[in-house]
Amino acid sequence: MFTSINPATGEAGEGIKELDADGIELALGRAQTAFSAWRNSAPEQRTQLLGAIADQWEANKQHLAETAVREMGKTLASAIAEVEKCISGFRHYAEHGPSYLEPSEVQTPGGRAVARWLPMGPVLAVMPWNFPYWQVVRFLAPTIMAGNVALLKHASSVQGCAALMQQLASAAGAPDGLFQNLAIKSDKVSDIIADKRVVAVTLTGSEGAGAKVAQAAGKALKKVVLELGGSDPLIVMPSADLDEAAKTAVTARVQNAGQSCICAKRMIVHAEVYDAFLEKFSAGMKAVKIGDPMAADTGMGPLSSVQQRDTVLEQVERAKAAGAELLFGAEKIEREGAWMTPGVLVGLDPESDVAKEEIFGPVAAVYKAADIEAAIALANDVPYGLGSAVWTQDEAEIERFARDIEAGMTAVNALLASTPAAPFGGVKLSGHGRELGPWGMHEFMNLKAVMYGKGAQAGD
Question: Which GO terms describe its molecular function (predicted)?
């Protein structure tokens, strides 16, 4: 039985029964049956379904958002924004998906070849709790458009969100077995990956979870896409708009209580503007209103769980032991639930173990860099490479950062955020493969070459 705990109150939610072996077998059989029909569906049928799902989400926006708040603690405003982003994701693939499926033709010495994008089969997604809807939709929408079918293994703490997503897909007219939530624990994942009916797997989660899934997929010789988080840098140069840079940095650290893979965690600031930025950033972090996540004026709610909160506090203690100074905050709030205050660390040794880790909570490490070379070196001096952000008005500096920062994404004078139209993913220990746009859809499709001899016509 899965039972979510409201991180704002400590109260237990409604339980969801765990799927047993017979239930898993039934789900896999339904997925295979659904694929045998859906693979031959017309693009128009797929876009119609995506639009209908988006309509269902629109009609149930408040219910979806409140479920996420109760299960993982994000503010209601951010939960509504997440649901709206999901709706835009479904509508993006409904609008642009058919063009992503268009074949392309090349001339060959013997005639010509047509490259076609064909579906592969049931795809398993192993998803985390921090964005319980968007993490799934950025896999689900392209999966439907590709002609594949989707199996979801969601985090144990957000099974209510997972069940609700399946219900809305069914209400929109999704064929039986097209999208199924597998209410299972992690120890069942390897066997499902090994099942011959499952053709590929995608995971968003920790480095350890990614390694286990990649090992299982490799053993079965199946395609895998991994997004494993990061320790993203935000670099501030002398020409930057410091007010906007500091404001964005605060948002990065307290959005979703700091539990976002692609929001900046390390602030790397040029020595010329270090003091001014630190003053503005610290003032912004201290001003964040912590409170009831359902309240409209709350800036930050609790973390997702007491365990997650305590993990962050333990990392802060190790940072202090490594020589860092805690300027303020990063303290446990003595009330029921997973509460803490935002905090800022300075003087952390970049070579210490904790400096190489991802701090998944509302705590920032601020570093001083002598010049652009030092800033880039420090940005790259972690084992991760998911996102990054740079603040500068200098075009030459922008080009250097875009070229030399080791990351899958770089935001320029903006908060880094995913979008349905652009590729999403990282390098190094942040994983491999891409989600979103045509790139994400094509990850789990068969790029088939159809070769035509001279004089042959398509369909001959």
Answer: aldehyde dehydrogenase [NAD(P)+] activity; succinate-semialdehyde dehydrogenase (NAD+) activity
What residue ranges do the domains of the chain occupy?
2-228+430-453, 233-412
> Is 227 designated active site?
yes
Judge contact between 319 and 348, C-beta under 8 A: yes
Q: How far is 301 from 87, CA to CA, in rounded Å? A: 24
431 HSE (CA, 13 A, CB side):
31
Q: C-alpha angle 193/434/168, rounded to 5°?
A: 65
Pick the CATH number of 233-412 from 3.30.70.100, 1.20.1250.20, 3.40.309.10, 2.40.10.480: 3.40.309.10
Chain centroid, CA 251 distance in Å = 17
Domain at 2-228+430-453, CATH homologous superfamily = Aldehyde Dehydrogenase; Chain A, domain 1 (3.40.605.10)
Options 71, 261, 397, 443, the catalytic residue: 261
Q: Are the beta carbons of 260 and 231 closer than 8 angstroms?
A: no
Radius of gyration of the chain from its Cα atoms, rounded to whole angstroms: 23
Q: Which residue has the tokens 């770089």?
A: 410
**How confident is the prediction along the chain (460 residues), in pLDDT tens digits per residue?**
899 999 999 999 888 999 999 999 999 999 999 999 999 999 999 999 999 999 999 999 999 999 999 999 999 999 999 999 999 999 999 999 999 999 999 999 989 999 999 999 999 999 999 999 999 999 999 999 999 999 999 999 999 999 999 999 999 999 999 999 999 999 999 999 999 999 999 999 999 999 999 999 999 999 999 999 899 999 999 999 999 999 999 999 999 999 999 999 999 999 999 999 999 999 999 999 999 999 999 999 999 999 999 999 999 999 999 999 999 999 999 999 999 999 999 999 999 999 999 999 999 999 999 999 999 999 999 999 999 999 999 999 999 999 999 999 999 999 999 999 999 999 999 999 999 999 999 999 999 999 998 765 555 4
Same CATH fold assignment for domains 2-228+430-453 and 233-412: no
For Cα atoms 176, 181, 185, give the angle at the middle one, nearest 5 degrees: 145
**Which H or E element spans position 306?**
helix 306-321
From 227, 358, 397, 435, active-site residue: 227
Rounded CA separation 434/419 (Å): 12
Residue 355 token pair: 């400096």
Question: Residue 447 class from Cβ within 10 Å (0-12 exposed, 13-18 middle, 19+ buried)?
Answer: exposed
Angle of CA points 168, 169, 175, to nearest 5°: 140
